[in-house]
Structures are given as C-alpha cells and as structure tokens.
Amino acid sequence: MWSFSVGLYLVMLDKSSLRLTAIYGLTSCISLIIFGAPIGRWIDRTNRLHAARTALLLQNTFVAICASVLVLSSYYEDRIKKMEAIYEELTHWAVICLAVLADLASAASRIIIGKDWIVVISKNSHHLAYMNAMARRIDLTSLICAPIITGQLMTYTSMVITAIFIAVWNLVSMFVEFFLISKLYYSTPALATKKSFKKRVASFASSLSRNAVVQAQIRAEDDNSSNLFASFFNGWKLYFQQNVVFAGLGLACLYMTVLGFDSITQGYANQQGVSAAVLGGISAVGAVVGILGTLVYPRLRDRIGIERTGLYGFFMEVACLTLCIVSVWMPGSPFEAVYWCYDKKTFEMQNSTSVIKEEIKKDESYTSIALLMTGIVTARFGLWMADLTVNQLLQEEVAEEYRGAVNGVQNSINMVMNMLKFILVVSFPCHQTFGYLIIVSFAFICIGWFLYCIYSYKMRGHISPFGKHHFSTSETERRLTDNDNPEQQT
Q1: pLDDT digits (tens, 9 = 90+) for 121-167
Q2: Nearest CA-CA partner of 418 in 116, 176, 100
Q3: In this structure, is residue 207 part of a structural domain?
Q4: Are residues 270 and 408 part of one domain?
Q5: ∠391-395-398 over CA atoms, to 5°?
C-alpha cells in the first residue's frame, strides 16, 4: 500500500509539478547506491533470523512514522502554509527522509528473503524456479489488493484517513510477519547455518576456478576491514567478477523507465485526469498480467532452458511497450516537442515565442493515456519473466557467502538506473515533456535486452531463441543438492 500511495501523497503536497516525487526517487536511489553493498555485506555476516527481524522492524516503523507525519501535515495544512516557507519545506523533507529510510530497510528485507532464504529452502534448481515464481505471485497479488484498497480509501474517504490506515496496518502486520518469519526459520534447520569462508576454501580448493579464487581473495580483503568504503569497493569488485554480470546489467536497464506503476507514472496519469481509484484498478490488472507471466515462467524454463526463457521475456516486454511509443503522438497526449518549465510556472516556447499560460487546456481525449496504460499493463507479462530469469541466475551462479554482497551491488546498479530516471524527470518535470521520458525509457529497455543477449551468447554460443539450448545451471544444481559432497562435482 505504501509504495502505491507515497507518490500520490507527494503530488498532494506539491500539486504544481512532479518535483517532490522526483526528489524522493532521486534521494532514495542515491541512498541505495551508497549503502547497497554495505547492507549486503552486513547480511552476509549476520545471523539470518536477526537480520530479517531487524530489517522488518525498521521498514514498518519508518513507514508508520512517515504516514503519521503526512496525517499531521494534512490536518494542519492551512496553518503550515500561513507560516514561513521553510516550515513547509521541512515537512516535505521529513516525509522524503523517512520514506528513504523505509526503502533501505525494504531493500535489506528483499535481499534476505528473496536472494538468500529462498535458495537455502529450495531443494534444487527446478524447485527454486517454482518457488521464485510463487513468491512473485504473492507479491503481485498484494499489488492487486493494496492499490484497490488504497485507491478506494483515497477517493471515497480522505487522504488523512488513508494515511492513518496505512500507519496502523504496518504496525499490526509487522507482528504477523515476525511470527511467520520465525516459524519458517525454526522449521528449516539449514537457515541456522551459514557457510564459513574457511570451510568453503578447504572443501573446494581442488576444484576452484579462477573466478572463485578471485572471489576468495576479495572476501579475505573484505573480512580484514569493516569500514563502509572497503565494503563498498570490494562488493562492486566482486560483482563484476561474476559470470552473470551482463544479465544483471540488462536487468538494471529495466529500472531506467517511467513505463511502470511507480510514483512518476501515477502522478502523470493523475494529472491526465485518471483518478486514484482507476489507477488502483489499472495497477491491479497489471499485477494480474504479471501473475500470468510467473505462471508461464517455470514451465517455459523447464522446456527450453533459463537463458532462452530470458530472451523471450525481454522480447515480449519490448514488443508490448511499442504501444507506449505510439501513445506519445495520439489524441489526448500533452506532448509538445519544444516546451520547458521554470519553477512552478508554465513556460512554453513555440516558434521562438514565449508565452506564459495561467492554465493549460487539456485535450478531452483519453486515447493517449489509455494506449500508454495498455502498453505498460501488457508488458508486465514479459517483464516478470525477464525479472525471474535474471534473479534466478543471480541466486544460482553466486556462492552462498557472497549472495548478500553481489545482490546488494545489483540493487545499487538498479538504483543507478532508477536515479537516472529521476534526474530526467527533474529536468523535464512537466507533463508536456513526458513523451521524451517515454522514448528514452523504451531505448534503455532495448539496451537491457541487448545486454542480456550478450550473456546468452556467452553461455550458449549464439543468441537465437531457437535451436539446442544449454543449461547453465548444472553447477547450481550441484551446489544445491551436493554441498555436502564436493568431490562429486565435476
């Protein structure tokens, strides 16, 4: 609910532009870039249950506090506006900072559960694929329910009541999540033990590849220093030694996009006359399409292999998003090729003539926004197939004791792309220039597809989605099933 509503609340705080949503996104990205690798190293060194509980506690607490600040700012809105401008800015920054802290804790939770716990629980690569798909379906199902509930509350009650509901929900659900995590931990003995660096080197010394030796050296360097810089540098160095680096970079390119249901696109759609209730419904439909992708993914992977599944996923996403490109020039689109905004005023340049408008006349046609939303919704099918493919590769091809660091860096690179998106939004904040953001987003998704093709070529010898496939997960299968018998690995 929070991820859906935070963008709308920031638009509510500054109705003139997407400035606050862009600043929030940019600040969140910078924080995740800086702290991604250190958070991952902390996860690698910390007891699994303690790390999960700590991340969960911080995430829910920060969300509840942030929602409470929004309640107070909404309730005393008139009084705050009568005061000096600095008080209004302080309110905005308080909301943004608390939301960013919640994002950092949320990133830690995702790495702990989605990148480490699920691999330990899985019996083999086949089982891991189905568990990943099931976990994603749970996430997407929550994306169906949460936007509908939040959108209806915002539309038919008030923003204040919705913020109160979110704060209470996070505090109550935290205890339920605590119980479920503890139960899972104690019912799975393997989670209580993490592989030590020394044991792994001793057990696999005879069969270590050059890549693994480099990883061992990096781990030894990192163990000798606990400072932030060492964790940051060594984590990034380790990441670029991985075989799946191009697949990971391809996934990261998918984050440089406004063609999703994030705060930027929600704010844009809201400016085009789409209500919060309708936005919630569209998000829910997108989640359903994504669920269909998660249902197809494990079955397609079993039939054609994981690399080819990723190729199909990227292709389907690109194909569907061509509708978004078309929407830029459809009736109802506010796109203007020569347009710029200065501060909170609308400033338009046409044929070297500047005209300041008090109001922007809106085209009553909804063709453009409908086509844009259709492209975004249908692309969720290929998006989640590509996402599941790359994430499973990151789970399988990275040794257990490096999962936190590598996936922390992956999260940082994702945020680099996300930050680039918000920089572009800050540069082009008006809805008349949103078409440029759509075009650039589509280009980056195509680049992501190309980078994944490079990985596929390295693993299979060609990039054709047809022909004999190569299963690159055999090493992972051995890691998941024969960890106690390293002599059996060939």
Answers
A1: 887 888 888 888 898 888 878 777 777 788 788 878 888 888 888 88
A2: 100
A3: no
A4: yes
A5: 125
